[in-house]
Amino acid sequence: MVILKEQLTWRAPRRGAVRRAARGFTAVELMVVVAIVAILASLAAPSFKYLVERWRVRDAVEAMTTTLYLARSEAVKRGGDVVVAQGTDGACETGEWRCGWTVSSGSGGDIQSFSVHPNLNVTSKSAQTELQFDRWGAFDEGQAGFTISPAPAGAASSATMTLCVSNGGRIETKQGDQQCS
């Protein structure tokens, strides 16, 4: 490859040469883009309400499932006498678990407490206020069921879920407000 002497020399730009245009956006272009994004966001915002409701219901279902598994394992570990009871802040009626719940043992006090988002309804299917687990991790009440739904919409919401627990401890979740069998 041969390099010529002319190729190695640098030349300054000529006087009066046209400068290249500046890169970037103008303020008008930027405002148009911001306006389009705002319109699209305002159209999409109402659909996020249902997404958030489903997330909250799913979170409460997972918290209840975790609570029941914890209570069963603690009952086996401690030789029984473990209770999952509805919250007692006075604002909840019998069978309403929307105030949260606690896992406690007869000898050692509270093991763990769970709270529920204020926009959720958690109700017991049979108005139970507590589930008592024996030393084998089962409870004597037979079968328990909970309906978890968004507070303003209630059980008619598409986000509603039912949590069913057999006396042996098998947990099943169902979409909607269904009966436990």
Kindly report the spatial arrangement of strands forming the biggest sheet: 3-2-1-5
Q: CATH homologous superfamily?
A: minor pseudopilin epsh domain
CATH T-level topology: minor pseudopilin epsh fold
Measured by DSSP, the beta-strand proportion falls in: 15-25%
| Uncertain residue segments | none
Q: What count of structural domains?
A: 1
CATH class: Alpha Beta
How many distinct beta strands? Answer: 8
Give the second-level CATH assignment, the architecture. Answer: 3-Layer(bab) Sandwich
Gross morphology: elongated
Q: What is the string of SSEs from the N terminus onward? A: HHEEEEEEEE
The number of helical segments is 2
Main sheet, how many strands, which sense, barrel? Answer: 4 strands, antiparallel
* Fraction of residues in helix: 25-40%
Q: Rg, please?
A: 31 Å
> In terms of structural class, how would the helical and strand content be classed?
alpha+beta
Average pLDDT rating: 81
Distance separating the two termini: 86 Å
Please provide a written account of the structure.
A hairpin with a 3-residue loop joins β2 and β3 (109-114). The radius of gyration is 31 Å and the shape is elongated. By secondary structure, it is an alpha+beta fold. The protein has helices spanning 5-8, 27-78, and strands spanning 82-86, 101-105, 109-114, 120-124, 130-133, 144-150, 161-165, 171-175. It has one domain (47-175): minor pseudopilin epsh domain (minor pseudopilin epsh fold, 3-Layer(bab) Sandwich), CATH 3.55.40. The strands form 2 sheets. A 4-stranded antiparallel beta sheet has the order 3-2-1-5, covered by helices on one side. Strands 4-6-7-8 form a 4-stranded antiparallel beta sheet, with helices on one face. Helix content is 31%, strand content 23%. The protein has 2 helices and 8 strands, in the order ααββββββββ.
